[in-house]
Amino acid sequence: MSDLIRVHSADSHLMEPDDLWSQALPKSQADRAPRFERDDKYETIYLDGERKHRMLNEFSDAFRPPGAFDVDLRLLDLDNEGVWGQLAFPSRALWLSGLGERELYRATAAAYNDWAAAEIIQRTPRVLPAAVVSTIDISDAIEELGRAIDLGFQSVFMPTSVPAGLEYGQDLWDPLWSAIEEAGIVAAFHIGTGETPVFYRGPGGAIVNYWETCVPGQRVVAQLVACGALDRHPNLRVLIAEGGASWVPALADRLDEAYRQHGTYVRPKLSMLPSEIIFRQVYTSFQHDASAIPAVEAMGYTNVMWGDDYPHLEGTYGHTQQTLHQLFDDSTPEARRLVTLANFEKLFDVPSMPADWGRSLTSATG
Amino acid sequence: MSDLIRVHSADSHLMEPDDLWSQALPKSQADRAPRFERDDKYETIYLDGERKHRMLNEFSDAFRPPGAFDVDLRLLDLDNEGVWGQLAFPSRALWLSGLGERELYRATAAAYNDWAAAEIIQRTPRVLPAAVVSTIDISDAIEELGRAIDLGFQSVFMPTSVPAGLEYGQDLWDPLWSAIEEAGIVAAFHIGTGETPVFYRGPGGAIVNYWETCVPGQRVVAQLVACGALDRHPNLRVLIAEGGASWVPALADRLDEAYRQHGTYVRPKLSMLPSEIIFRQVYTSFQHDASAIPAVEAMGYTNVMWGDDYPHLEGTYGHTQQTLHQLFDDSTPEARRLVTLANFEKLFDVPSMPADWGRSLTSATG
């Protein structure tokens, strides 16, 4: 490992404090915000009084890097890993998309955005939090989006699963797509959100469910393309984070085949092939996938970004440079440029990387 | 288009006669077999008295090649398209997997196999039907599998969707995997089977649903690998037909990440990485996908076969050579060899292609 690979990460998570909502909201609302309770064996997640998910403590206790809960330590972690800019999704606030009550969703999302603006945006330009907005009331979403843009957010988090009837292919979302497109920010979908993460119980369930979480992200793309939303909003950029990248050409081919072979039954018509719309507007992030770079090099899908998924277990903390070298040592310079830095810089304003940044790391890992 | 590309097809369909089950079974059973009823606008599919699916007549009336219902004409179609060997799934008998009554499933499957053996296997060695067996009683499945092998079948059709509790990751399937492995035939899953094909109603539904049908095929692979079935049966070869090929490296990477990063929670352990098991035992077929050949060339996933999906609307009848040239004119000779012929010949016994076969076609299309 002779040289340092400097990179931006298009997928990471903030770790909100336990008392985020109780500090910001009246008790009547704070009590119904996401709450996390632990006994000897399980961590249980409650949402508006209802038990949403239960998982083994050992899972939630899995290794956390030093800077998981502190932004100054986080920046040291990033320095040590070779990560300069970082898109950051929520952790606890990911569960807000399970809320069914309009006012509660509006208030908890606003409280999250205020916290992330004060504690992250105001403290470092290297970590870019995604805003949270209502996904059950579009006018609330648009209003909060405006506020979030004023606070300095550059992307808005969207859950990959939504209730039946509210699918992203439905026309009701169109005003939000317009607002996001006009603001020039990114619609940042993160896989495994908007649903409980257990699809299957049986032998190999941990692996199967890990795969299942990425399917709804693919469904989002299929729907946004097929319904014409991306065609009508050609400057709307969509990110599907943490779900890999090489599924995109496969899905694009599948949609093209439907569009051509079943053309008589296709409504609405699109102005170009689904694959062309996808390759233009859909971005993805991956952590370890060996097939992600070949998707750029050999399949013409170039909107691929790397992500560290800091500070989660699926991420690369502690082996970031090792992973990056496995991914890029044999890649073309162009693929490396796009995936490590250029695509991120196309989507986000991030401060320039100092020329000497990471030199000490080079010697430490060299 | 100067040269003829000669190919085997790993995905096509027989078109069973209307009276298959009424000819072969007592009226009490025949009346409950799949039945297709048409009025002015819709074709409706009944199964054991229950309405299973309804689709526009124009969809089912879509263009059929001349040999759709006649094996002699079919061989002429294949000659004209440049297709030598052809794996053939059922059409109407695909619906048998929706049956819930053991005896009815057993009898209708056996009647289908008898018909396909007499009308296809006995009449040409170039078209290789997949046998149909019960998917609700494993002992019935194993018994019929033995009979089918005696009749000359080289693969067994499996639906990609099964009822909850009967997922392919469950241990109950293991005796069938053993029987298939021992017989040396192929477990041939076909996408879009075992379920009604409408997942989503809304703008772009035709495209979205076409994509949705391929997801359960991916789920089959995730489950068969994660539960250890493919690891315990290293000679079991699985085909996922008609769903594309380039999703395989993406899925393999995803399972590898789960296996490594969530290792503590993974049961059972496997003897190698999920990707290694998949690349060894999982075969796929595609029709038009531009990303399928790069998956072979650049991602190391070589078990890819082409399929014509004859005589269906998603297939290539009438433009087979044009599609093959788009796919292979710039491919490596090794990828072309594997995808057009070699992988098929590794899985199936098919008569040798006469050296001069297709010469007339060459001049006709040249």
How are the SSEs ordered, and which strands pair?
The structure is a homodimer of 366-residue chains.
Chain A: E1 7-9, H1 20-24, H2 27-30, E2 35-38, E3 42-47, E4 50-56, H3 57-60, H4 71-81, E5 83-88, H5 102-121, E6 127-129, E7 131-132, H6 138-151, E8 155-159, H7 174-183, E9 186-190, H8 205-212, H9 215-226, H10 229-232, E10 237-241, H11 247-261, H12 274-281, E11 282-286, H13 292-299, E12 304-306, H14 320-328, H15 333-347, H16 359-365
Helix pairs in contact in A: 5-6, 6-7, 11-12
Give a quick rundown of the structure.
The structure is a homodimer of 366-residue chains. Chain A has 366 residues and is of the alpha/beta class.
Question: What can you tell me about this protein's structure?
Answer:
The structure is a homodimer of 366-residue chains. With 366 residues, chain A is of the alpha/beta class. The first copy, chain A, contains 16 helices and twelve strands. Chain A has helices spanning 20-24, 27-30, 57-60, 71-81, 102-121, 138-151, 174-183, 205-212, 215-226, 229-232, 247-261, 274-281, 292-299, 320-328, 333-347, 359-365, and strands spanning 7-9, 35-38, 42-47, 50-56, 83-88, 127-129, 131-132, 155-159, 186-190, 237-241, 282-286, 304-306. Chain A has a six-stranded parallel beta sheet. Chain A has a three-stranded parallel beta sheet with strand order 1-5-6. In chain A, α6 packs parallel to α7 (174-183) and α11 runs antiparallel to α12. Chain A starts with 6 loop residues before the first strand and ends with a helix. Mean pLDDT of chain A is 94; it is low at 362-366. At the A-B interface, α8, α9, α11 and α13 of A face α8, α9, α11 and α13 of B.
